[in-house]
Amino acid sequence: MALRILPFRQYSDHDVVNMYSVIDSDVLTSTTDTGAGDAGVFVKVSDGNFDNDPVTYQTNSYLGKTDYPFVGTTEMYPEVNIKVTGAKGEDHALGLTLYQTAKNDENGEKLLYNPQKQEELQAMLPGQAVPIATKGIFTLSSAAFDGPIASYAPGNRIKLSAVTAGKVTGFTTIAQSAITTGDLFAEDKVFGHVLGTGTRASTGPTTDQFAGNYIVVSFDCN
């Protein structure tokens, strides 16, 4: 998992959505992998059909062997039906994932069989609803934003990256006399701003887990 959000953050549980699971192709194989199943990914709704049951039982190889005689069905794995995936460019972001979604721990052991470790690793299982913050103040590492940190001066605004799904990019205010139609469209996609920036460096023989550039942003996807 790429470390996209650092410990300093401020948000209310009232602004967290717990209704969506990530699409199957975004699920990480291991908690040490990185991808769209990371914590700290800005996501969009990819399936919001509330006509479907909130949870249904599916056939899923993650559960293991289920085709024993006399069991009656292989559909035994519960899965949240409405889905999210990484948001990009002109998408409307629902919010920021607070947990990763992964199948196995760092040793390749299924988290399905170790719920205590799953909690400790702040991970959701495939098909489980992942908590998504729709607004708040968060510290984003360089794995969560595109471009150099110089693009994120305090007061500058942020929007979804057009390059990498799940990341943000900086947006500089344009003088009124120079605004074009395209600029107005881009302005509509802004959903937060930069509060400050910083850089952490490792000191001594120990590598700092949080070393590197970071930005502190306030956003509201509502």
What can you see in these coordinates?
By secondary structure, the protein is mostly beta strands. It has one domain. The protein has helices at residues 115-120, 181-188; strands at residues 5-10, 16-17, 21-22, 28-30, 42-47, 55-58, 77-80, 83-86, 95-97, 100-104, 123-124, 132-133, 135-141, 157-160, 168-171, 192-200, 212-220. The strands form 4 sheets. The chain has a 6-stranded antiparallel beta sheet, with no helix packed on it. Strands 2-12-9-5-8-3 form a 6-stranded mixed beta sheet, with no helix packed on it. The longest helix has 8 residues, at 181-188. It is globular. The chain starts with a strand and ends with a strand.
Which helices and strands occur, and which strands form pairs?
Blueprint: E1 5-10, E2 16-17, E3 21-22, E4 28-30, E5 42-47, E6 55-58, E7 77-80, E8 83-86, E9 95-97, E10 100-104, H1 115-120, E11 123-124, E12 132-133, E13 135-141, E14 157-160, E15 168-171, H2 181-188, E16 192-200, E17 212-220
Parallel strand pairs: 3-8, 4-10, 10-11
Antiparallel strand pairs: 1-13, 2-12, 5-8, 5-9, 6-7, 9-12, 13-17, 14-15, 14-16, 16-17
The largest pleated sheet is described as: 6 strands, antiparallel
SSE order, as H and E? EEEEEEEEEEHEEEEEHEE
Helix content: under 10%
Gross geometry: globular
Main structural class: mainly beta
Radius of gyration: 19 Å
Strands side by side in the biggest sheet: 1-13-17-16-14-15
